[in-house]
Amino acid sequence: MISYSEIVFRLVLASILGGLIGLEREANNRPAGFRTHILVTIGSTLIMLISMYGFKGLGVNGSGGEPARLAAQVVSGIGFLGAGTILRQGNAIHGLTTAASLWVCGCIGLAIGNGYYLGGLVTAGIVLFTLVSLGLFEKIIFKNKYKTIHVICCERAGLIGEIGTLLGKYKVIIKHIKMSPFDEDRDKVLHIDITVKVPKYFSPEELFGGISKINGIRSVKWEEQWENNEE
């Protein structure tokens, strides 16, 4: 049996690693964020600890049974939680990356609970690198395939739905939506970044004209236009 301090250390380390991954998801306005990733990672760690040390004195010759049996259920069980983050809009699937991050957090938790610190720490580092750095790399590679629409608007119920309906009318597929306050002094004004995949032939002028007519919209621009204005 390991010491109490070692148990606490493993649980705390697991929560830190899960929290770091969750912060990245939270920053990108994903359905499972900071707290969810912490809970998944620390829960997996606890199950691993229980598997290894919670049944000592039981089983054949007091061995406690096979530690891998209980821990193995985490790997399959996380799949049900991850499924709740996956959404389908038309032909586009959203939430797969978040579901995968939840699953790998479960694996990291099992590694930390087992005392396999090197594997857990290296895996967490690779996951963070993949989510942060490779996300930027992906945007560079697919820059011509995806466009970002910047919308300044007044917050109100149903606004995102109306924008989405209009984009669907022009067969524009939404890949990602990020919302943030446009002006700290005015909580009701939002800056919405909508990453979209545009069809080969369509009229952006007509699309932007339609978006501009939606109640509450103040301005709408492509990413290039937005960057030029910022300069």
From TrEMBL:
Location of the MgtC/SapB/SrpB/YhiD N-terminal domain: 11-138
Membrane topology field: Multi-pass membrane protein
Pfam families: MgtC (PF02308)
KW Membrane (keyword) present: yes
UniProt-listed InterPro entries: ACT-like_dom_sf (IPR045865), MgtC/SapB/SrpB/YhiD_fam (IPR003416), MgtC_SapB_SrpB_YhiD_N (IPR049177)
Entry's localization field: Cell membrane
Main location: membrane
Cellular component GO terms held in the UniProt record: plasma membrane
Keyword field contains Metal-binding: no
Entry keywords, A to Z: Cell membrane, Membrane, Transmembrane, Transmembrane helix
SUPFAM superfamilies named among the record's database cross-references: ACT-like (SSF55021)
Transmembrane segments: 36-55, 67-86, 93-112, 118-137
Organism domain of life: Bacteria
Family, similarity comment: Belongs to the MgtC/SapB family.
PANTHER family from the UniProt entry: MAGNESIUM TRANSPORTER YHID-RELATED (PTHR33778:SF1), PROTEIN MGTC (PTHR33778)
Record's protein name: MgtC/SapB family protein
UniProt source species: Crassaminicella thermophila
